[in-house]
Amino acid sequence: MKLHSILLVGVTLSNLVLTACVSAPTGPTITVMPREGKPFEVFKKEDQECREFAQNSVQDGNAAALKAGAISAATGAAIGAAAGAMYQGGSGPNVGTGAAIGMVGGAAVGAMGASNKETQAQTQYNTAYQQCMYAKGNQVPGFKPVNEFKPIK
């Protein structure tokens, strides 16, 4: 198998694996409680509305961030594979091993970038969810509960 083929297969596989690892937020990672006296059915409805609000708030930027994370991981794998192959001299029986080792190292570095993008998306999701639930009068950690909304006159 030629070096070019080894690199192509390796980068393609690492790209697929790493892209599968990068995901959008599926829900909040914070706890919000209904205010005292609020019916649970009302709280559940508000929770669903705020999850949709949070998802919409991160959707545009999240798709770009997750794509950038996956590209970063694939690029790291490709550079690592090329460096590993060059380190092995570009020929001989161990060139595949050098490429594979370089690809794994490069993929790990790229995966860290993807992980950072995923963490940013989750933080943005949590903030939007928290703002929405607080505005609806629910108990949000770290904030004094709102008893009733009174418009400014």
TrEMBL record:
Keywords: Signal
Keyword Signal in record: yes
Annotated signal peptide: 1-20
Name of the protein in its database record: Glycine zipper family protein
Lineage: Bacteria, Pseudomonadati, Pseudomonadota, Betaproteobacteria, Burkholderiales
